[in-house]
């Protein structure tokens, strides 16, 4: 103890500057073992009545470690000091030391697991949380969410608001990707509230939030988010941010059905990206414009040219995800124009798995179109396989939807899979499978679809169409009752009735589509080519 | 022979007044039938009767509200009548139906240019060019007469508007493009004159000597 006291007297009973100066003057005499001794002393002194002493000692340890320029020793010193500071309820200083410690470890280690082991060895929960937050980014979504929940608890306990903001942002991103928009919204809103206080990345966060609002169909909120983000980007003179805002505004206007200013928004975004030589972003804008052009008669040439140019750009950047997406769009335009051969050539590499990480939306649409093309060519078995693969993807996407509104919206956007599947299963004499699809069709919110079609288009429909819908309700009810009675399921009668029901449904859809074409050119295409959001661009480009 | 064929035949034979009469007869028999009023509007527009053309296009839009071509033709008629506000409204409604309607974008450019709002006019001309970006010789679509001649008009008007805003380098670029994509035509000839003027190292360009507006081509 005397030796320790003497050592302490040597370095602590002077002000900090003098201490550091003295330490530096005597650098040759300071050994790592001495600092380790200091660290141990600080740790030993960390009982409540000795906290003050522990803090002084740990501070000296840190200063010594800085002087000897050894990351490992400094990380240890900072970790111990952070623990002492937390014990003394000096949370912000503790957080600062912890982050510095993590920085030292980063310089020392290449892997997060090694950093984590270090903090485990030092029994330092906050440090573990810091590493876990970073590890979570590479994990699959549910594991990441679990870890981030635990991290959140620790951050809240230490009042680490900035970290909490980023954890919430991270969680929100995970929910968003998994189509859990309500959860994403809750997390984003809290993240915005926290990060607004620090004025950190608010504009980017608002763009993310606006995407979620748009998915929840809260378009006024989207507008507010974009306005605020726009204002921030303008103040920062961030032209790329403004370009992103333009693309988002265009997406919003497309959602609102207000089209007159769309080209201006896309062009301005394109010009800004061009000014900053953002080739991929320019191509993405082109892809947006191409999808827009493809809806309207007389613009196919331009649409083709823009999509081909976008594909070439993405190909050059070796971004297979975006190549697949753009090829998908190009294929749909060919398909809708009756050029099935070209559509097939474009889609085959997508459905054959030649591209990595094809977006689920692109993949199921590609499979659906391939199925639709194989059917009239007399290949019902191949068509069946394509539809089956498509429906698996759609179901996995649908399973992640929580809210009634989202489910209905999602269903309304998708073509009817079950009809063709049941028909094909019957044609290829797969009766058991046919009945399975009937069952699944029922359980997968078949009624939601009808309900939504009615609510969306009621105002635009004539009396005949409404009568048809009512008739469909009756038929569906009959079908439901029949399916409920399992013993009679295998009778040919039921299948015939289903066929009839199916044919009615197809006819109804055709009617509705005709109405849609008249009332909204945007949804004229049978397949839903969604406008691209800035968030989607960011997600896609992040893999470059 | 369907409702319109006779009227179309008359129009092709240059007998516009009879074509109008024939179309009016059809309209009185089938007042709610689509496209009849639109065709009537086209005939009246060609006869220079813009006020009555406007009425016809408006009636057509009552019958087929999302008929893009009727909306932009209404814009053109209003523009001819010197009613910029109504023209802008009509063009916007055409763009709401089809945001890629280059005729409306071009029309808006012309309207804004006429009322002296040159920056906005330039923006609309640029919007058109954004949708038709690849009109060089390597582009097979450059051979398409309509598209190509249309772009000549756009570039020419843009060149003139750049001159009005004293952005002479930009004007030069536009006139050079006119010469490139529409060689031998009237507008290429005019562009050549402007280019000479713009590249005259001795003289300071005096826009007041040039009645630029009168030299502008007709709207499409």
State the gist of this model.
Chain A is mainly alpha-helical and 544 residues long.
Write the layout of secondary structure elements.
The complex is a heterodimer of chains A (544) and B (220).
Chain A: H1 2-12, H2 16-25, H3 32-44, H4 51-68, H5 71-87, H6 91-108, H7 112-121, H8 125-136, H9 141-157, H10 161-177, H11 181-198, H12 202-215, H13 219-236, H14 239-256, H15 262-275, H16 279-294, H17 300-316, H18 320-336, H19 340-351, H20 360-374, H21 380-398, H22 404-413, H23 418-427, H24 431-443, H25 446-457, H26 463-484, H27 492-519, H28 534-542
Helix pairs in contact in A: 2-4, 3-4, 3-5, 4-5, 5-6, 6-8, 7-8, 8-9, 9-10, 10-11, 11-12, 12-13, 12-14, 13-14, 14-15, 15-16, 16-17, 17-18, 18-19, 18-20, 19-20, 20-21, 21-23, 22-25, 23-24, 23-27, 26-27
Chain B: H1 5-12, H2 16-29, H3 36-46, H4 50-63, H5 68-80, H6 84-97, H7 102-114, H8 118-131, H9 145-164, H10 168-181, H11 186-198, H12 212-215
Helix pairs in contact in B: 1-2, 2-3, 3-4, 4-5, 5-6, 5-7, 6-7, 7-8, 8-9, 9-10, 10-11
State the major sheet of chain B: none
Number of helices of chain A: 28
Mean pLDDT of chain A, to the nearest integer, reads 74
CATH architecture of the domain at 116-220 in chain B: Alpha Horseshoe
The pair of chains with the biggest contact is: A-B, 22 and 20 residues
Overall body shape of chain A: elongated
- CATH class of the domain at 116-220 in chain B, named Mainly Alpha
Distance between the termini of chain A: 59 Å
- The class by helix and strand makeup of chain A works out as mainly alpha
Beta strand % of chain B: under 5%
Number of helices of chain B: 12
């Amino acid at each position: 103890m005397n030796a320790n006291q003497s050592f302490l007297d040597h370095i602590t009973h002077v002000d900090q500057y003098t201490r550091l100066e003295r330490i530096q003057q005597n650098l040759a005499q300071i050994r790592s073992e001495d600092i380790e001794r200091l660290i141990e002393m600080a740790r030993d002194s960390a009982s409540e009545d000795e906290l003050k002493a522990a803090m002084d000692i740990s501070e000296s340890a840190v200063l010594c470690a800085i002087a000897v320029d050894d990351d490992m020793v400094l990380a240890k010193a900072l970790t111990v000091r952070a623990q002492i500071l937390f014990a003394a309820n000096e949370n912000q200083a503790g957080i600062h030391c912890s982050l510095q410690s993590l920085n030292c470890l980063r310089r020392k280690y290449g892997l997060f697991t090694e950093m984590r082991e270090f903090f485990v060895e030092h029994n330092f929960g906050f440090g573990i949380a810091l590493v876990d937050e970073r590890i979570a980014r590479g994990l699959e979504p549910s594991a990441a969410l679990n870890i981030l929940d635990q991290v959140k608890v620790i951050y809240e306990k230490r009042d680490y608001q900035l970290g909490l903001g980023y954890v919430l942002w991270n969680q929100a991103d995970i929910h968003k990707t998994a189509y859990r928009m309500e959860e994403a919204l809750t997390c984003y809103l809290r993240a915005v509230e926290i990060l607004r206080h620090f004025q950190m990345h608010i504009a980017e966060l608002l763009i993310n939030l606006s995407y979620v609002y748009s998915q929840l169909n809260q378009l006024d909120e989207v507008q507010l988010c974009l306005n605020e983000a726009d204002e921030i980007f303008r103040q920062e003179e961030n032209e790329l941010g403004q370009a992103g805002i333009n693309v988002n505004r265009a997406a919003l206007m497309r959602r609102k059905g207000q089209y007159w200013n769309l080209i201006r928004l896309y062009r301005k975004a394109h010009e800004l990206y061009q000014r900053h030589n953002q080739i991929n972003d320019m191509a993405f804008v082109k892809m947006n414009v191409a999808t827009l052009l493809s809806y309207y008669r007389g613009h196919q040439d331009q649409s083709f040219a823009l999509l081909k140019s976008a594909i070439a750009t993405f190909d050059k950047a070796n971004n297979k995800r975006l190549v697949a997406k753009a090829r998908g769009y190009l294929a749909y335009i060919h398909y809708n124009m009756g050029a099935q051969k070209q559509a097939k050539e474009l889609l085959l590499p997508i459905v054959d798995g030649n591209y990595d990480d094809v977006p689920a939306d692109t993949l199921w649409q590609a499979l659906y179109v391939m199925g639709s093309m194989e059917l009239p060519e007399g290949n019902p078995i191949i068509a069946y396989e394509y539809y089956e693969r498509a429906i698996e993807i759609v179901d996995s996407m649908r399973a992640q939807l929580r809210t009634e509104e989202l489910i209905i919206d999602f269903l309304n956007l998708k073509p009817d899979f079950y009809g063709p599947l049941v028909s094909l299963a019957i044609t290829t004499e797969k009766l058991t499978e046919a009945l399975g699809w009937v069952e699944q069709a029922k359980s997968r919110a078949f009624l939601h679809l009808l309900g939504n079609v009615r609510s969306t288009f009621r105002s635009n429909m004539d009396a005949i169409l409404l009568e048809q819908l009512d008739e469909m309700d009756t038929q569906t009810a009959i079908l439901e009752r029949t399916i409920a009675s399992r013993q009679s399921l295998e009778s040919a009668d039921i299948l015939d009735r289903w066929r009839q029901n199916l044919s009615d449904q197809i006819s109804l859809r055709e009617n509705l589509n005709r109405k849609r074409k008249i009332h909204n050119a945007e949804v004229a295409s049978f397949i839903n080519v969604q406008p691209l959001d800035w968030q989607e661009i960011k997600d896609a480009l992040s893999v470059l | 022979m369907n409702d319109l064929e006779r009227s179309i035949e008359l129009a092709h034979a240059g007998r516009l007044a009879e074509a109008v009469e024939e179309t009016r007869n059809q309209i009185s028999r089938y007042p709610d039938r689509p496209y009849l009023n639109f065709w009537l509007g086209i005939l009246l527009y060609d006869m220079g009767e813009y006020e009555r053309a406007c009425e016809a296009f408006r009636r057509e839009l009552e019958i087929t509200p999302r008929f893009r071509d009727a909306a932009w033709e209404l814009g053109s008629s209003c523009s001819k009548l010197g009613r910029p506000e109504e023209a802008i409204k009509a063009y916007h409604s055409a763009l709401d139906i089809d945001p890629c309607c280059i005729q409306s974008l071009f029309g808006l450019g012309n309207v804004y240019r006429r009322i002296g709002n040159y920056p906005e006019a330039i923006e609309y001309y640029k919007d058109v060019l954004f949708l038709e970006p690849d009109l060089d010789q390597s582009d097979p679509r450059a051979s398409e007469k309509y598209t190509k001649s249309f772009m000549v008009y756009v570039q020419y008007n843009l060149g003139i508007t750049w001159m009005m805003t004293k952005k002479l380098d930009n004007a030069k670029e536009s006139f050079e493009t006119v010469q490139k994509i529409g060689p031998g035509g009237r507008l290429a000839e005019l562009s050549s004159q402007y280019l000479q003027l713009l590249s005259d190292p001795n003289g300071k360009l005096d826009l007041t000597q040039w009645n630029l507006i009168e030299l502008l081509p007709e709207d499409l």
